[in-house]
Amino acid sequence: MAKKKSLKYYLHYLYILSDILFIFAVSLITFYSYYGRDGFVKHLNPIMIYSASLAAFSVIAFAIAKIYRMFTSEIGLFEMIRILTVTFITQMVGYVTIAVVRELPEIRYFTLSFVLGLSMTTLVICLSRVFIRVFFILRNMRKKKEKVRTLIIGAGSAGKIVIDESRKNPDNHNVVVAFVDDDINKIGGTFANLPVKGPINQISTIIDYYKIEEVIIAISELSHERLHEILSLLDLCPVRVRRLPTLSEMEGPNDKRIIDVDLNDILSRDQVILDNHEVNEVLKGKSVLITGAGGSIGSELTRQIFKTHPKTLILFDIYENSTYDIQMELVKKMRDEDIKDINLVVLIGSTYNEVRMEQIFRKYKPDFVYHAAAYKHVPLMEDSPAEAIRTNVIGTYNVAKLCDKYHVTKMVLVSTDKAVRPTNVMGATKRFAETIIQYYAKHSKTKYAAVRFGNVLGSNGSVVPLFKKQIEAGGPVTLTHKDIVRYFMTIPEAVSLILQCGLFAEGGEIFILDMGQPVKIYHLAERLIRQAGYVPGRDIKIIETGLRPGEKLYEELLLDKSIQTPTKNKKIYIEPTEMVNEKVLEDVEKASAAFGLEETTNDVKKLLESLISTYKSVDNNGK
């Protein structure tokens, strides 16, 4: 069956035909203006031949200059300048031809005649394009069934991209009614025939006045700090928020997608970009073991370390499904890129199974160990404290002891901000794990270190996947307390930090990332709701369920630059070293007693309190 011709195909020939007619007509008008009726009739034949030739020559020149390849929807000043340039050249050639051939009497006022012909030809050709563009814009506006009143932040080049997209795309339901900007030279004027209001800190009033339903942030270069400020201003406004990618985020020079506000945008700082060049040099050709390799952090660690081309990469996890997924991902990569120098080993088991761990260390003799295996869910560990001890304490102890026995070069423990003056079982067991690392760092030739950071955006068990599921189900979105705040980082940041700290580790350090300002969970919920196209409180309700056992309103401040030691990377600091607990091995034996205690009682928590001096459980009010 023959392929249906597109509208663009027919427009191509319509433009050629109209250009021939317009140029021919303009040429006749020019001659008539200067010869008068009698002179025009007297020289009619050569005038007709010349005008027809000029029209044909001009169309050929337009084709060579690719004028007919211009999209009608993109016609603008630059395209008009191209048309003017080509028209100037064709008109000049035409008048020079008159002077040389002399079949026509020379036009008396050559300059005036040339300007008239040039201006009229350019005008009618450009107007024909503009007319078609206006026609499509009006047609697209009529096609829009659902009109979304939209405000654009940024009356500049990026804002122009958004307004063009909204006008030319029939599938785009945005009807832009105004711009808002901080530039005092723009405020009060118009941009793209729309009013420019401002400043941005008055945006809530502007939204109310224009009855705005959606806001699009269109600023070509925007820091995370400024984006965070703008999003904070919009938190109380009943609108959906989207944005145009910054230049650095675009996949290519013509990438003009309008995107939803990304999870990374909730950070009140720019993302930390760490140079892993040295990591590549250190890990290349080595044997590397990653415990918890199927988790959010472990799988990203696996991907990053895989890029360094280790000799042997051992993935170890108790959960087979996610571990299988990362295995298949790497196997496909090895096949597609014909990688044959990496021995990929995938093993299932638990770190608290000492016999199983010994088998792995004895057979593969890892040079580097990244210990990410742990139970991390706070409420679940409050109800199963003995299991938290089994994995987070005994598991860490087994791995640390074997690293010493088999002369591992470095071991890095993935810890948490909840280990700082812990008020829950998960935090207490991770603090216990840190003390184990510090003990072995003092008594072993292996270099041990721990990496402590806050919540990871989008990781398994975090609030983001939970909120998204609740939004997909139509709500409500539940959070424990309206005022609860947390520190956040991205998965790439967390993994880069772990790898960098593995380089810096000399023995027993606890590394901390400068994570900026904490984020209010309530605001995070609002932004995710807007990202899904709903209005918080109206379309999707947000309800409080009360603090859970062991949960605090505010996480401890991770970073105190006045007491913590900076590293050569200005975003990474070292926690002051505490006195090593020389009885930690005895404490591990005591912790094993938790397995014989009844988990429905507080005996296990009391045991932990006796072993971790900074641990104090809290009630449901976060006190």
Describe the structure.
The protein is of the alpha/beta class and 623 residues long. It folds into 3 domains: 7-140, no CATH class; 144-261, NAD(P)-binding Rossmann-like Domain (Rossmann fold); 281-462 and 487-518 and 559-611, 3-Layer(aba) Sandwich (Rossmann fold). The strands form 5 sheets. It has a 9-stranded mixed beta sheet with strand order 10-9-8-11-12-13-18-22-21, with helices on both faces. A 7-stranded mixed beta sheet has the order 3-4-2-1-5-6-7, with helices on both faces. Strands 14-17 form a two-stranded parallel sheet. α9 links the parallel β8 and β9. α1 packs antiparallel against α4, α11 (354-364) runs parallel beside α13 and α13 (385-405) runs parallel beside α14 (425-443). The longest helix is centred in the first third of the chain and has 36 residues, at 7-42. It is elongated. Mean pLDDT is 80; it is low at 247-256.
The gross shape turns out to be elongated
- Please name the fourth-level CATH homologous superfamily of the largest domain: NAD(P)-binding Rossmann-like Domain
Strand content: 5-15%
Number of helices: 19
**How much is the radius of gyration in Å?**
35 Å
Total domains: 3
The CATH class designation of the largest domain is Alpha Beta
Q: Give helix % range.
A: 40-55%
Mean pLDDT: 80
List low-pLDDT spans.
Answer: 247-256
Kindly report how far apart the N and C termini lie. 74 Å
Write out the strand line-up for the largest beta sheet, numbering strands in chain order. Answer: 10-9-8-11-12-13-18-22-21
At CATH level 3, the topology of the largest domain is: Rossmann fold
